[in-house]
């Protein structure tokens, strides 16, 4: 029996209010409208950004209201398509994207950026193009995080925010390319353009930072220093390419001073993967003058970074990256190919696997630093 054109009742993890555990509920997912695709989500990850928005400040709540289905790093299978959809068919394997690529606007046509703004204003506040969500619970609209909401067994996304991937790709691995790994890896190879034999420092060794380490390794950097206050992550960093690791807590001087000394004058590339303005400043100041490059990959929405003008005047470059600089719809399938061809690691990032009804445990392990990524299976095994 086909479900196309019908409302689907399924399970989802709902954040009814900030600061409280998610609740597993029966939700109704409406059919897709024009230029929308309904997908069956198979696997999703719990990202630091999900954690941040579960524990919202009142300031942020004005922009992303509750109740909310979080999740923006997932992979699944097309269940049905709405009118005017031409690039997807039921059965396609896909990765939903929080960053669109319409392929029509000036930004999509430009090689200088990946920041398409199709449906952007709406998805940032949890709704789709018509101003409503496709998910409801107990007769109430439930907002979709970044237009995705992968913590639901079914979700509906715009067709410009969806990457079709090869049919043999394992969804329980490639879901990582929906956010963390793509962001960190791209920060190094796409945005920063790390060069062979260079000296690099990666600040923060979560999923994004470890992927940045992997990117520096792929670019054949000579020195790759991983930096984190959690030494339990050092072994994984070394596995992915770090040549050494540093715990700032072990020094009585600033971490930028430590890195400048270790690199004999400063690193060529610093990649900030924490989302802390103080760490961003430290990353910039750890680079060598004249040509040092600092790439900010960590997300921060409400704070300001302190930049000494002299640090820029002396020739350093400060850059930001969003989703690693990748053109989402066209580049994610290439990253999947790289994984399938054994030139990109993903398995090493998955430290835990849990069913949907234990998703709060995944948040706990993320917060206490014992996990890199937990793969959440949305369907019984």
TrEMBL record:
Keyword Transferase listed: no
Organism taxonomic ancestry: Eukaryota, Metazoa, Chordata, Craniata, Vertebrata
PANTHER family: ALCOHOL DEHYDROGENASE, S-(HYDROXYMETHYL)GLUTATHIONE DEHYDROGENASE
Domain Alcohol dehydrogenase-like C-terminal: from-to ranges: 207-335
Function: Alcohol dehydrogenase. Catalyzes the NAD-dependent oxidation of primary alcohols to the corresponding aldehydes. Oxidizes secondary alcohols to the corresponding ketones.
InterPro entries named among the record's database cross-references: ADH-like_C, ADH-like_N, ADH_Zn_CS, GroES-like_sf, NAD(P)-bd_dom_sf
GO CC field: cytosol
Name the record gives this protein: Alcohol dehydrogenase 6
Pfam families referenced in this protein's UniProt entry, alphabetically: ADH_N, ADH_zinc_N
Keywords: Metal-binding, NAD, Oxidoreductase, Zinc
Domain of life (superkingdom): Eukaryota
One of the GO biological process terms: formaldehyde catabolic process
Molecular function as annotated in GO: alcohol dehydrogenase (NAD+) activity; S-(hydroxymethyl)glutathione dehydrogenase [NAD(P)+] activity; zinc ion binding
Gene: LOC115569221
């Amino acid at each position: 029996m086909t479900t196309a054109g019908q409302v689907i009742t399924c399970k989802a993890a709902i954040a009814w209010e900030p600061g409280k555990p998610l609740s597993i509920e029966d939700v109704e997912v409406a059919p897709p409208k024009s230029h929308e695709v309904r997908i069956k989500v198979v696997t999703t990850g719990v990202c630091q950004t999900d954690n941040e928005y579960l524990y919202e400040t009142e300031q942020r709540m004005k922009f992303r209201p509750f109740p909310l289905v979080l999740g923006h790093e997932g992979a699944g299978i097309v269940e049905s398509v709405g009118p005017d959809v031409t690039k997807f068919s039921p059965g396609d394997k896909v990765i939903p994207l929080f960053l669109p690529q319409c392929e029509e606007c000036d930004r999509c046509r430009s090689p200088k950026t990946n920041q398409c703004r199709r449906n952007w204003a709406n998805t940032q506040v949890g709704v789709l193009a018509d101003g409503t969500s496709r998910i409801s619970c107990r007769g109430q609209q439930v907002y979709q995080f970044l237009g995705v909401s992968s913590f639901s067994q079914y979700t509906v996304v715009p067709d410009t925010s969806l990457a079709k991937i090869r049919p043999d790709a394992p969804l329980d691995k490639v879901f990582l390319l929906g956010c963390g790994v793509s962001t960190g890896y791209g920060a190094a190879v796409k945005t920063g353009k790390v060069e062979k034999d260079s000296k690099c420092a990666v600040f923060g060794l979560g999923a994004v930072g470890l992927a940045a380490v992997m990117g520096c390794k792929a670019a054949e950097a000579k020195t790759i220093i991983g930096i984190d206050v959690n030494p339990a992550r050092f072994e994984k960093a070394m596995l992915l390419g770090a040549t050494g690791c540093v715990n700032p807590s072990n020094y009585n001087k600033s971490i930028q001073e430590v890195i400048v000394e270790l690199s004999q004058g400063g690193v060529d590339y610093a990649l900030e993967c924490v989302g802390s303005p103080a760490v961003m400043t430290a990353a910039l100041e750890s680079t060598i003058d004249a040509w040092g490059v600092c790439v900010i990959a960590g997300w921060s929405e409400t704070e300001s970074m302190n930049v000494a003008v002299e640090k820029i005047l002396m020739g350093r470059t400060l850059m930001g990256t969003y989703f690693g600089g990748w053109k989402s719809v066209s580049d994610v399938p290439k990253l999947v190919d790289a994984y399938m061809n054994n030139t990109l690691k993903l398995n090493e990032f998955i430290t835990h696997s849990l069913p949907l009804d234990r998703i709060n445990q995944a948040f706990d392990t993320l917060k206490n630093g014992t996990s890199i990524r937990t793969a959440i299976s949305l369907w019984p095994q």
